[in-house]
Amino acid sequence: MSIETQITEMAQAGKRASRRVAALDTAEKNQILEAIADGLERSTAEIIEANAKDLAAAEENGLSSAMIDRLTLDDGRVKAIADAVRQIVKLDDPVGAVIDEFTGAQGIEIRKVRSPIGVIGIIFESRPNVTVDAAVLCLKSGNATILRGGREAIHSNTALAKVINESGCAAGLPENAIQLIPFTDRAAVPALCQADESVDLIIPRGGRGLIEAVISCSRVPVIKHLDGICHVYVAASADPEMAKSIALNAKVQRPGVCNAMETLLVDRGSADQLPGIAAALHAAGVELRVDPEAADAIGDAAPTVAATEDDWHTEYLDLVLSVKVVDGVDAAIDHINHYGSGHSDGIVSGDAGEVKLFLAGVDSSTVYHNASTRFTDGEMFGFGAEIGISTDKLHARGPMALPELTTYKYEVHGTGQVRG
Amino acid sequence: MSIETQITEMAQAGKRASRRVAALDTAEKNQILEAIADGLERSTAEIIEANAKDLAAAEENGLSSAMIDRLTLDDGRVKAIADAVRQIVKLDDPVGAVIDEFTGAQGIEIRKVRSPIGVIGIIFESRPNVTVDAAVLCLKSGNATILRGGREAIHSNTALAKVINESGCAAGLPENAIQLIPFTDRAAVPALCQADESVDLIIPRGGRGLIEAVISCSRVPVIKHLDGICHVYVAASADPEMAKSIALNAKVQRPGVCNAMETLLVDRGSADQLPGIAAALHAAGVELRVDPEAADAIGDAAPTVAATEDDWHTEYLDLVLSVKVVDGVDAAIDHINHYGSGHSDGIVSGDAGEVKLFLAGVDSSTVYHNASTRFTDGEMFGFGAEIGISTDKLHARGPMALPELTTYKYEVHGTGQVRG
């Protein structure tokens, strides 16, 4: 059987299963989630044994220590995965929530109601915890999933999917509601992305290569996270201590994540704040790549390197920062909309009019006034859990939690109305 | 310059313009809309003259009389297009509306605010009124548009776009906010669908061939209307007069539209209602394609033809109806989810439990209880105007009005919070 045929059959099985998942009530879904969490803990040894095979292969293939760390499961990490499943139990079930209610022509009563999307394909790289996270978030929101993990984690993922299905199905999880693609052939990705008869949404989680492989071939709608080229703009009216504190936090608190700042923009009118900010960043180990005006303003306060055009486009994910002096809020907005990635961008300012312009003008998922960009996160927003952060604008933007894994339908109640 | 380069440049110009459109306030947008409406009326002669060229070509190319009718503009139709623009003035501006407001970690104040999508590509077939409708709906929702009409209407569309831009720009419409692709080369469609650096959404409006051409190549998210294979299910508890009235209305009131019924499902327990319904449909000129059990139930009440498997999949858009007897609400739901198109499906029933099952179980944009499927329409829902009806599940489902032409962003207000 060809890869395409196998994937098509999985997709069709997923679609049939999705009807049964959609029909589960909240208590039934929570019972399944509890059973999956218990099953994961009970099967820790089995999961770690499978993980060891992936780790041995990773060593053999010379994977970086960072990648090996991401791949590694131990008692504590399996327990954390199980606990994360139990967290999902506590979250509100989005399915059935009434979003809006109104009366249409001839008195028909219309209710806009949240409903499951159907079948969601999750394509991800090496972290095996995503296998469980993604599956249970989709389950709680009433969807079936087809999971495609990285080849480096195939043994771990297979073991996790087996435990999810064995413990879940014993507690009422419909068969094929959570499917893992059991082979690592590359052709599985385009096959899944073209199964638009059965698959309703693809969420790719990974680097640019993976995202490109998905969007270049997908007939199924895709919600993606591309880059996090985040900016902080220090306006002339910014409180200097606040500006320094936010810039420092946004860059160094965790430089390897998508909501970390990559470019600092400083208004010409607050260029005198730059030496202090630059010195603090330098002291925290940050390399500064600056435009000529920023270099002048920083002077001897910290060493700098001349920025190239590429720097403004770059997501460093490291202790490196581009710094530029701009002429006012409009120039800051233009820079961000041109070079940014639509993720998270902030202004530090004490001027309400300028803040309003910035928040409306910057075309990003999350725009900040006097707070660090590092807050773009489902947990920080109080969503309890997130499946990712969308840098797209359609359907879901910013942190994606359970409601973003649903669609809606209109339920119309009549008393025999016909159209005249 | 190649087609691809021309389209890329239009897309980039559209993106730049979209920032300026997004910054217009409601009064400014309404003033532009009034100017466009006035301009269209003032230029009626010029528009009709351009339309005459399209009509002459259409006659020469032997287009059907239905297609020629759709293409034709006269004084009354131009007036109707201008009046439709004035209707948009009256609608609420969705931009800036606060969808949700909550407090996140460390007291950050988060507001989820509607904002424009950016650049919307509209690809449509021969009706020239779509040129104006689509452009002004996108404008009111703060978006720039790139319009690609059918080759049959190129002269009409060019004249309309010229009037929109001349009258609009004089009243403050940003340059390139509304662009019509000025040539009919087929390569323009894939070029537009691949310009994902600048174009945020593609809405194709037309037949299956057009939709397929778009989804097979698009890197840009697409919201589409595929088929309208709508069902009415008559349950055992249905009121017979209501069932007959709804079936008749859903089929014959306007058979050529997407929300007309194509398949009637009747519960075995109400098969005795079939002769009356069938006779009424036959009297209205409807050809009945039936399964064996429906044939038996109808008997001599009306002539019937045996349905083939294809019939259950067919959107007739004509006075033809498939009829099938099913075993209860679960069988009805299964049939609809298998053969339907996710558009509009209804149940006629007096049993609340059964209604609940049907409304939750049928995976369609709009599900009806005791009302005709013909109500799926932006106007009937009270939306004032619609850009189309989505049979997709992502972002927008069912009638798409102004709010569905927006996205959202999170505006976060802090007092210097940083992440710990």
From TrEMBL, chains A, B:
Main location: cytoplasm
Stored SUPFAM superfamilies: ALDH-like (SSF53720)
GO CC annotation, single: cytoplasm
Record flagged with keyword Phosphoprotein: no
Functional pathway: Amino-acid biosynthesis; L-proline biosynthesis; L-glutamate 5-semialdehyde from L-glutamate: step 2/2
Subcellular location: Cytoplasm
Keywords: Amino-acid biosynthesis, Cytoplasm, NADP, Oxidoreductase, Proline biosynthesis
Enzyme Commission number, as recorded: 1.2.1.41
PROSITE patterns: PROA
Domain (Aldehyde dehydrogenase) ranges: 5-293
Domain of life according to the entry: Bacteria
GO MF term set: glutamate-5-semialdehyde dehydrogenase activity; NADP binding
Catalytic reaction(s) noted: L-glutamate 5-semialdehyde + phosphate + NADP(+) = L-glutamyl 5-phosphate + NADPH + H(+)
A Gene Ontology BP annotation from the UniProt entry: L-proline biosynthetic process
Protein purpose: Catalyzes the NADPH-dependent reduction of L-glutamate 5-phosphate into L-glutamate 5-semialdehyde and phosphate. The product spontaneously undergoes cyclization to form 1-pyrroline-5-carboxylate.
NCBIfam families: PRK00197.1, proA
Family: Belongs to the gamma-glutamyl phosphate reductase family.
Designated name of the protein: Gamma-glutamyl phosphate reductase
Natural source organism: Sulfuriroseicoccus oceanibius
Gene name for this UniProt entry: proA
